[in-house]
Amino acid sequence: MKALMPGRRRTMLAVAALLPALAGFGWSRERDDAWSAAERAVLASMHLDRLGALPPDLGNAVAERPEAAALGRALFFDTRLSRNGQVACASCHEPARQFQDGRPVGRGLADGARRTMPLADAARSPWLFWDGRKDSLWSQALGPLEDDAEHGSNRTRIAQQLHAHHRQRYEQVFGAFPPLAGLPADAGPLGSPAQREAWARMSDAQRDAVNRVFANLGKAIAAYERTLRAAPSRVDRYVRAVETGDAAARQILTPDEVRGLRLFIGKGRCVTCHAGPLLTDQHFHNTGVPPRTPGRPDPGRAAAVARVQADEFNCLGRYSDADATACGELSFIAQSPGLLGAFKTPGLRNVALRPPYMHAGQLATLEDVLAHYRQAPAAVLGSSELAPAGRVQAGRQAVRLDDEEARQVVAFLRALSGPADEGVGAGAR
Protein backbone atom coordinates (compact mmCIF):
# COMPACT_ATOMS: atom_id res chain seq x y z
CA MET A 1 0.00 0.00 0.00
CA LYS A 2 2.70 2.46 0.98
CA ALA A 3 4.79 1.76 -2.10
CA LEU A 4 2.08 3.03 -4.45
CA MET A 5 1.93 6.48 -2.90
CA PRO A 6 3.84 8.22 -5.78
CA GLY A 7 1.58 6.64 -8.40
CA ARG A 8 -1.54 7.75 -6.59
CA ARG A 9 -0.15 11.29 -6.43
CA ARG A 10 0.61 11.27 -10.15
CA THR A 11 -2.99 10.27 -10.90
CA MET A 12 -4.40 13.06 -8.73
CA LEU A 13 -1.99 15.63 -10.19
CA ALA A 14 -2.93 14.60 -13.72
CA VAL A 15 -6.63 15.08 -12.98
CA ALA A 16 -5.91 18.42 -11.28
CA ALA A 17 -3.97 19.61 -14.33
CA LEU A 18 -7.02 19.02 -16.52
CA LEU A 19 -9.50 20.89 -14.32
CA PRO A 20 -9.01 24.36 -15.81
CA ALA A 21 -9.84 22.98 -19.26
CA LEU A 22 -12.88 21.15 -17.93
CA ALA A 23 -14.38 23.87 -15.74
CA GLY A 24 -15.39 26.09 -18.63
CA PHE A 25 -16.72 23.32 -20.82
CA GLY A 26 -20.48 23.60 -21.20
CA TRP A 27 -23.01 21.24 -22.73
CA SER A 28 -26.04 21.33 -24.93
CA ARG A 29 -28.63 18.74 -25.91
CA GLU A 30 -26.93 18.39 -29.29
CA ARG A 31 -23.55 17.49 -27.85
CA ASP A 32 -24.22 15.52 -24.66
CA ASP A 33 -21.84 12.79 -25.85
CA ALA A 34 -19.25 15.05 -27.47
CA TRP A 35 -16.44 14.51 -24.99
CA SER A 36 -13.19 16.42 -25.44
CA ALA A 37 -9.80 14.72 -25.18
CA ALA A 38 -9.31 16.22 -21.69
CA GLU A 39 -12.71 14.97 -20.57
CA ARG A 40 -12.08 11.51 -21.96
CA ALA A 41 -8.86 11.33 -19.96
CA VAL A 42 -10.71 12.11 -16.74
CA LEU A 43 -13.51 9.67 -17.59
CA ALA A 44 -10.96 6.93 -18.20
CA SER A 45 -9.32 7.66 -14.82
CA MET A 46 -12.67 7.00 -13.12
CA HIS A 47 -13.23 3.50 -14.55
CA LEU A 48 -13.10 0.76 -11.92
CA ASP A 49 -10.62 -1.23 -13.97
CA ARG A 50 -8.06 1.54 -13.39
CA LEU A 51 -7.68 0.33 -9.81
CA GLY A 52 -5.40 -2.46 -10.98
CA ALA A 53 -4.11 -5.09 -8.61
CA LEU A 54 -4.68 -4.62 -4.89
CA PRO A 55 -1.51 -3.04 -3.47
CA PRO A 56 0.36 -5.10 -0.87
CA ASP A 57 0.11 -4.35 2.83
CA LEU A 58 3.76 -4.64 3.82
CA GLY A 59 2.84 -4.31 7.49
CA ASN A 60 0.74 -7.49 7.34
CA ALA A 61 2.69 -10.60 6.33
CA VAL A 62 -0.45 -12.76 6.14
CA ALA A 63 -2.56 -10.30 4.14
CA GLU A 64 -2.82 -12.57 1.08
CA ARG A 65 -3.15 -15.94 2.80
CA PRO A 66 -6.58 -17.57 2.30
CA GLU A 67 -6.44 -19.25 5.71
CA ALA A 68 -5.87 -15.83 7.30
CA ALA A 69 -8.90 -14.44 5.46
CA ALA A 70 -10.98 -17.42 6.64
CA LEU A 71 -9.96 -16.76 10.24
CA GLY A 72 -10.60 -13.05 9.75
CA ARG A 73 -14.10 -13.69 8.43
CA ALA A 74 -14.92 -15.81 11.48
CA LEU A 75 -13.63 -13.06 13.76
CA PHE A 76 -15.51 -10.37 11.81
CA PHE A 77 -18.84 -12.01 12.68
CA ASP A 78 -17.93 -13.16 16.22
CA THR A 79 -19.95 -11.34 18.89
CA ARG A 80 -17.93 -13.01 21.68
CA LEU A 81 -15.21 -10.44 21.14
CA SER A 82 -17.44 -7.76 22.69
CA ARG A 83 -18.05 -7.06 26.37
CA ASN A 84 -21.73 -8.05 26.26
CA GLY A 85 -21.36 -10.86 23.72
CA GLN A 86 -23.72 -9.13 21.28
CA VAL A 87 -21.55 -6.86 19.11
CA ALA A 88 -19.41 -7.97 16.16
CA CYS A 89 -17.63 -6.04 13.42
CA ALA A 90 -20.58 -6.98 11.22
CA SER A 91 -23.00 -5.26 13.62
CA CYS A 92 -21.99 -1.92 12.12
CA HIS A 93 -20.42 -3.15 8.87
CA GLU A 94 -23.46 -5.06 7.61
CA PRO A 95 -22.85 -7.00 4.38
CA ALA A 96 -26.39 -6.28 3.16
CA ARG A 97 -25.81 -2.51 3.58
CA GLN A 98 -22.53 -2.07 1.69
CA PHE A 99 -20.67 -3.04 4.89
CA GLN A 100 -22.00 -0.03 6.81
CA ASP A 101 -25.16 0.41 8.88
CA GLY A 102 -27.26 3.27 7.47
CA ARG A 103 -27.19 5.17 10.78
CA PRO A 104 -26.04 8.77 11.28
CA VAL A 105 -23.43 7.46 13.75
CA GLY A 106 -22.27 3.95 14.47
CA ARG A 107 -23.93 1.99 17.27
CA GLY A 108 -22.23 -0.78 19.23
CA LEU A 109 -22.62 -0.88 23.00
CA ALA A 110 -23.59 2.79 22.68
CA ASP A 111 -23.83 5.47 20.01
CA GLY A 112 -20.50 6.60 18.61
CA ALA A 113 -19.53 10.08 17.44
CA ARG A 114 -19.16 9.42 13.70
CA ARG A 115 -20.68 7.58 10.80
CA THR A 116 -19.72 3.97 10.00
CA MET A 117 -17.59 3.90 6.85
CA PRO A 118 -18.06 1.19 4.17
CA LEU A 119 -15.26 -1.33 3.65
CA ALA A 120 -15.16 -1.97 -0.10
CA ASP A 121 -11.60 -1.40 -1.30
CA ALA A 122 -10.66 0.16 2.05
CA ALA A 123 -7.35 -1.72 1.71
CA ARG A 124 -6.35 0.86 -0.91
CA SER A 125 -6.46 3.76 1.53
CA PRO A 126 -3.32 4.95 3.34
CA TRP A 127 -5.41 6.30 6.23
CA LEU A 128 -8.43 4.73 7.92
CA PHE A 129 -11.41 6.25 9.77
CA TRP A 130 -12.86 9.68 9.03
CA ASP A 131 -9.88 11.34 10.71
CA GLY A 132 -7.19 8.93 9.50
CA ARG A 133 -6.10 7.94 13.01
CA LYS A 134 -5.01 4.49 11.76
CA ASP A 135 -2.55 3.85 8.96
CA SER A 136 -3.42 0.28 7.96
CA LEU A 137 -6.45 -1.94 7.63
CA TRP A 138 -5.14 -4.34 10.28
CA SER A 139 -4.49 -1.58 12.78
CA GLN A 140 -7.92 -0.09 12.07
CA ALA A 141 -9.58 -3.40 12.98
CA LEU A 142 -8.17 -3.20 16.52
CA GLY A 143 -9.57 0.18 17.54
CA PRO A 144 -13.26 -0.74 17.89
CA LEU A 145 -12.49 -3.79 20.06
CA GLU A 146 -11.33 -1.62 22.96
CA ASP A 147 -13.68 1.33 22.37
CA ASP A 148 -16.33 1.66 25.09
CA ALA A 149 -19.02 2.65 22.58
CA GLU A 150 -18.23 -0.23 20.20
CA HIS A 151 -17.07 -3.67 21.43
CA GLY A 152 -16.00 -2.41 24.85
CA SER A 153 -13.62 -5.32 25.52
CA ASN A 154 -9.97 -5.48 26.60
CA ARG A 155 -6.83 -7.20 25.39
CA THR A 156 -6.49 -10.11 27.79
CA ARG A 157 -10.16 -11.03 27.45
CA ILE A 158 -9.90 -10.87 23.65
CA ALA A 159 -6.76 -13.06 23.68
CA GLN A 160 -8.53 -15.60 25.85
CA GLN A 161 -11.60 -15.62 23.58
CA LEU A 162 -9.36 -16.15 20.57
CA HIS A 163 -7.61 -19.04 22.34
CA ALA A 164 -10.88 -20.65 23.42
CA HIS A 165 -12.75 -20.43 20.11
CA HIS A 166 -10.27 -19.91 17.25
CA ARG A 167 -7.02 -21.51 18.42
CA GLN A 168 -6.70 -24.10 15.65
CA ARG A 169 -7.23 -21.58 12.84
CA TYR A 170 -4.98 -19.06 14.58
CA GLU A 171 -2.11 -21.53 14.85
CA GLN A 172 -2.46 -22.50 11.18
CA VAL A 173 -1.71 -18.88 10.31
CA PHE A 174 0.50 -17.53 13.08
CA GLY A 175 2.07 -20.55 14.75
CA ALA A 176 1.81 -21.65 18.37
CA PHE A 177 -0.43 -19.64 20.66
CA PRO A 178 1.52 -18.09 23.55
CA PRO A 179 0.73 -19.38 27.07
CA LEU A 180 -2.02 -17.43 28.79
CA ALA A 181 -1.85 -19.05 32.23
CA GLY A 182 -1.69 -16.52 35.01
CA LEU A 183 -3.08 -13.63 32.99
CA PRO A 184 -5.85 -11.51 34.55
CA ALA A 185 -9.27 -12.08 33.00
CA ASP A 186 -9.66 -8.40 32.18
CA ALA A 187 -6.67 -6.17 31.55
CA GLY A 188 -5.64 -3.64 28.95
CA PRO A 189 -4.00 -0.23 28.57
CA LEU A 190 -7.23 1.48 27.47
CA GLY A 191 -9.81 -0.07 29.79
CA SER A 192 -11.23 0.85 33.18
CA PRO A 193 -8.89 1.94 35.99
CA ALA A 194 -8.95 -1.64 37.35
CA GLN A 195 -8.10 -3.05 33.90
CA ARG A 196 -5.26 -0.58 33.41
CA GLU A 197 -3.89 -1.41 36.85
CA ALA A 198 -4.04 -5.14 36.07
CA TRP A 199 -2.24 -4.48 32.77
CA ALA A 200 0.50 -2.56 34.56
CA ARG A 201 1.07 -5.50 36.96
CA MET A 202 1.70 -7.89 34.06
CA SER A 203 5.30 -8.56 33.04
CA ASP A 204 6.75 -7.03 29.89
CA ALA A 205 6.79 -10.48 28.29
CA GLN A 206 3.13 -11.08 29.11
CA ARG A 207 2.07 -7.72 27.72
CA ASP A 208 4.10 -8.30 24.57
CA ALA A 209 2.57 -11.74 24.04
CA VAL A 210 -0.96 -10.39 24.42
CA ASN A 211 -0.19 -7.46 22.12
CA ARG A 212 1.16 -9.88 19.51
CA VAL A 213 -2.04 -11.95 19.62
CA PHE A 214 -4.10 -8.76 19.47
CA ALA A 215 -2.16 -7.48 16.44
CA ASN A 216 -2.49 -10.85 14.71
CA LEU A 217 -6.24 -10.74 15.21
CA GLY A 218 -6.28 -7.42 13.36
CA LYS A 219 -4.13 -8.83 10.57
CA ALA A 220 -6.53 -11.74 10.07
CA ILE A 221 -9.56 -9.44 9.94
CA ALA A 222 -7.72 -7.23 7.46
CA ALA A 223 -6.97 -10.27 5.26
CA TYR A 224 -10.72 -10.87 5.07
CA GLU A 225 -11.56 -7.21 4.49
CA ARG A 226 -9.11 -7.11 1.58
CA THR A 227 -11.51 -9.42 -0.27
CA LEU A 228 -14.29 -6.80 -0.19
CA ARG A 229 -14.39 -4.97 -3.51
CA ALA A 230 -16.64 -2.44 -5.20
CA ALA A 231 -18.68 -3.73 -8.14
CA PRO A 232 -18.94 -2.03 -11.55
CA SER A 233 -21.77 0.44 -12.08
CA ARG A 234 -23.58 1.74 -15.15
CA VAL A 235 -21.10 4.62 -15.16
CA ASP A 236 -18.22 2.19 -15.74
CA ARG A 237 -20.03 0.64 -18.68
CA TYR A 238 -20.77 4.08 -20.10
CA VAL A 239 -17.13 5.17 -19.76
CA ARG A 240 -16.02 2.03 -21.55
CA ALA A 241 -18.52 2.76 -24.35
CA VAL A 242 -17.08 6.27 -24.73
CA GLU A 243 -13.56 4.83 -24.86
CA THR A 244 -14.46 2.27 -27.52
CA GLY A 245 -16.76 4.54 -29.55
CA ASP A 246 -19.76 2.26 -29.01
CA ALA A 247 -22.59 4.72 -29.74
CA ALA A 248 -25.36 2.25 -28.94
CA ALA A 249 -23.90 1.40 -25.52
CA ARG A 250 -23.85 5.07 -24.58
CA GLN A 251 -27.58 4.78 -23.92
CA ILE A 252 -26.58 3.09 -20.65
CA LEU A 253 -26.91 6.50 -18.96
CA THR A 254 -29.91 8.78 -19.28
CA PRO A 255 -29.44 12.32 -20.66
CA ASP A 256 -29.70 13.76 -17.14
CA GLU A 257 -27.07 11.32 -15.85
CA VAL A 258 -24.72 12.22 -18.70
CA ARG A 259 -25.17 15.93 -18.01
CA GLY A 260 -24.60 15.28 -14.33
CA LEU A 261 -21.37 13.46 -15.18
CA ARG A 262 -20.25 16.38 -17.33
CA LEU A 263 -20.97 18.79 -14.48
CA PHE A 264 -19.24 16.48 -11.98
CA ILE A 265 -15.95 16.58 -13.87
CA GLY A 266 -16.34 20.12 -15.20
CA LYS A 267 -18.29 23.08 -13.92
CA GLY A 268 -19.10 21.55 -10.53
CA ARG A 269 -15.42 20.68 -9.92
CA CYS A 270 -16.48 17.69 -7.82
CA VAL A 271 -13.65 15.66 -9.30
CA THR A 272 -11.16 17.96 -7.58
CA CYS A 273 -11.53 15.75 -4.50
CA HIS A 274 -13.68 12.86 -5.75
CA ALA A 275 -11.15 11.59 -8.27
CA GLY A 276 -9.95 8.23 -9.52
CA PRO A 277 -11.78 4.88 -9.72
CA LEU A 278 -13.04 5.07 -6.12
CA LEU A 279 -13.93 8.76 -6.50
CA THR A 280 -11.81 9.91 -3.58
CA ASP A 281 -8.42 11.57 -3.32
CA GLN A 282 -7.90 9.80 0.05
CA HIS A 283 -7.08 13.18 1.63
CA PHE A 284 -8.72 15.36 4.30
CA HIS A 285 -10.74 18.51 3.67
CA ASN A 286 -12.73 21.05 5.66
CA THR A 287 -15.90 21.86 3.73
CA GLY A 288 -17.79 23.62 6.51
CA VAL A 289 -19.99 20.67 7.47
CA PRO A 290 -21.76 21.70 10.70
CA PRO A 291 -21.06 19.71 13.88
CA ARG A 292 -23.60 17.06 14.78
CA THR A 293 -23.91 18.54 18.27
CA PRO A 294 -23.99 22.37 18.30
CA GLY A 295 -21.25 23.82 20.45
CA ARG A 296 -19.13 20.65 20.21
CA PRO A 297 -17.22 20.83 16.92
CA ASP A 298 -15.13 17.83 15.92
CA PRO A 299 -11.45 18.70 15.23
CA GLY A 300 -11.20 15.83 12.73
CA ARG A 301 -7.79 15.20 11.18
CA ALA A 302 -6.04 17.77 13.36
CA ALA A 303 -6.51 15.63 16.47
CA ALA A 304 -5.59 12.39 14.72
CA VAL A 305 -2.06 13.16 13.53
CA ALA A 306 -0.51 12.77 16.98
CA ARG A 307 -2.64 9.68 17.63
CA VAL A 308 -1.45 7.78 14.59
CA GLN A 309 2.17 8.77 15.25
CA ALA A 310 1.97 7.44 18.83
CA ASP A 311 0.02 4.27 17.97
CA GLU A 312 1.97 1.16 18.98
CA PHE A 313 0.26 -0.68 16.11
CA ASN A 314 1.25 1.74 13.36
CA CYS A 315 3.47 0.92 10.37
CA LEU A 316 6.64 1.77 12.27
CA GLY A 317 5.67 -0.11 15.44
CA ARG A 318 7.13 -3.39 16.66
CA TYR A 319 4.02 -5.35 15.66
CA SER A 320 4.16 -4.25 12.04
CA ASP A 321 5.78 -6.59 9.53
CA ALA A 322 7.06 -3.65 7.45
CA ASP A 323 10.47 -2.07 7.63
CA ALA A 324 10.86 1.70 8.00
CA THR A 325 11.39 2.24 4.27
CA ALA A 326 7.83 1.03 3.60
CA CYS A 327 6.26 3.60 5.91
CA GLY A 328 6.73 6.76 3.88
CA GLU A 329 3.32 8.30 4.57
CA LEU A 330 3.67 7.84 8.32
CA SER A 331 7.29 9.02 8.30
CA PHE A 332 6.41 12.29 6.57
CA ILE A 333 3.04 13.02 8.16
CA ALA A 334 2.80 16.59 9.41
CA GLN A 335 0.34 18.81 11.22
CA SER A 336 -0.98 21.94 9.48
CA PRO A 337 -3.68 24.56 10.16
CA GLY A 338 -5.71 23.27 7.22
CA LEU A 339 -6.34 19.96 9.00
CA LEU A 340 -8.49 21.55 11.71
CA GLY A 341 -12.06 20.41 11.10
CA ALA A 342 -10.97 18.37 8.08
CA PHE A 343 -12.31 14.90 7.33
CA LYS A 344 -11.48 12.22 4.82
CA THR A 345 -13.01 12.45 1.35
CA PRO A 346 -15.41 9.49 1.15
CA GLY A 347 -15.51 7.38 -1.97
CA LEU A 348 -18.72 7.73 -3.98
CA ARG A 349 -19.20 4.18 -5.26
CA ASN A 350 -22.74 3.09 -4.26
CA VAL A 351 -23.17 6.43 -2.48
CA ALA A 352 -26.92 6.60 -3.19
CA LEU A 353 -27.40 3.35 -1.25
CA ARG A 354 -26.01 4.60 2.04
CA PRO A 355 -27.63 7.78 3.41
CA PRO A 356 -27.26 9.81 5.57
CA TYR A 357 -24.08 11.66 4.62
CA MET A 358 -20.96 13.37 5.97
CA HIS A 359 -18.84 12.25 8.89
CA ALA A 360 -21.68 12.22 11.43
CA GLY A 361 -24.72 11.81 9.21
CA GLN A 362 -25.51 15.53 9.34
CA LEU A 363 -27.09 15.62 5.85
CA ALA A 364 -30.00 13.29 5.11
CA THR A 365 -30.02 13.15 1.30
CA LEU A 366 -27.81 13.67 -1.72
CA GLU A 367 -29.91 16.73 -2.51
CA ASP A 368 -28.95 18.10 0.93
CA VAL A 369 -25.28 17.45 0.15
CA LEU A 370 -25.46 19.42 -3.11
CA ALA A 371 -27.30 22.24 -1.32
CA HIS A 372 -24.57 22.37 1.31
CA TYR A 373 -21.81 22.70 -1.28
CA ARG A 374 -23.71 25.38 -3.16
CA GLN A 375 -24.37 27.40 0.01
CA ALA A 376 -20.80 26.94 1.32
CA PRO A 377 -21.42 27.94 4.95
CA ALA A 378 -18.48 29.10 7.03
CA ALA A 379 -16.78 26.41 9.08
CA VAL A 380 -17.49 26.35 12.80
CA LEU A 381 -13.96 25.07 13.37
CA GLY A 382 -11.03 25.84 11.11
CA SER A 383 -11.53 27.29 7.63
CA SER A 384 -13.74 25.85 4.89
CA GLU A 385 -12.22 25.21 1.47
CA LEU A 386 -15.50 26.31 -0.13
CA ALA A 387 -16.49 29.84 -1.07
CA PRO A 388 -20.10 30.98 -1.53
CA ALA A 389 -21.10 31.40 -5.19
CA GLY A 390 -20.45 34.92 -6.44
CA ARG A 391 -17.49 35.49 -4.14
CA VAL A 392 -13.89 35.14 -5.21
CA GLN A 393 -11.70 34.16 -2.28
CA ALA A 394 -8.07 33.08 -2.53
CA GLY A 395 -7.55 29.38 -1.89
CA ARG A 396 -11.29 28.66 -1.77
CA GLN A 397 -13.53 27.05 -4.35
CA ALA A 398 -17.11 27.94 -5.22
CA VAL A 399 -19.61 25.39 -6.52
CA ARG A 400 -21.70 27.37 -9.00
CA LEU A 401 -24.60 25.11 -9.96
CA ASP A 402 -28.23 26.11 -10.49
CA ASP A 403 -31.14 23.99 -9.28
CA GLU A 404 -31.41 22.01 -12.52
CA GLU A 405 -27.68 21.32 -12.61
CA ALA A 406 -27.68 20.17 -8.98
CA ARG A 407 -30.52 17.76 -9.81
CA GLN A 408 -28.50 16.36 -12.71
CA VAL A 409 -25.42 15.82 -10.54
CA VAL A 410 -27.58 13.87 -8.10
CA ALA A 411 -28.88 11.79 -11.02
CA PHE A 412 -25.28 10.95 -11.95
CA LEU A 413 -24.41 10.03 -8.34
CA ARG A 414 -27.31 7.57 -8.30
CA ALA A 415 -25.89 5.91 -11.42
CA LEU A 416 -22.73 5.00 -9.46
CA SER A 417 -24.55 2.15 -7.74
CA GLY A 418 -23.62 -1.37 -8.82
CA PRO A 419 -26.35 -3.95 -9.52
CA ALA A 420 -27.65 -5.72 -6.42
CA ASP A 421 -26.28 -9.06 -7.57
CA GLU A 422 -22.82 -7.52 -8.00
CA GLY A 423 -22.76 -5.81 -4.63
CA VAL A 424 -19.82 -5.54 -2.28
CA GLY A 425 -18.46 -8.92 -1.32
CA ALA A 426 -15.66 -11.41 -1.58
CA GLY A 427 -14.60 -11.93 -5.14
CA ALA A 428 -17.11 -9.43 -6.52
CA ARG A 429 -14.65 -8.32 -9.17
From TrEMBL:
PROSITE patterns, A to Z: CYTC
Key words, A-Z: Heme, Iron, Metal-binding, Oxidoreductase, Periplasm, Peroxidase, Signal
Domain annotation Cytochrome c: ranges: 67-218, 255-417
Cellular localization per UniProt: Periplasm
Major localization class: periplasm
Signal peptide range: 1-23
InterPro entries according to UniProt: Cyt_c-like_dom, Cyt_c-like_dom_sf, Cytochrome_c_Peroxidase/MauG, Di-haem_cyt_c_peroxidsae, MauG/Cytc_peroxidase
A GO term, aspect molecular function: peroxidase activity
A family per Pfam: CCP_MauG
Highest taxon in the source lineage: Bacteria
Name recorded for this polypeptide: Cytochrome-c peroxidase
Organism listed in the record: Pelomonas lactea
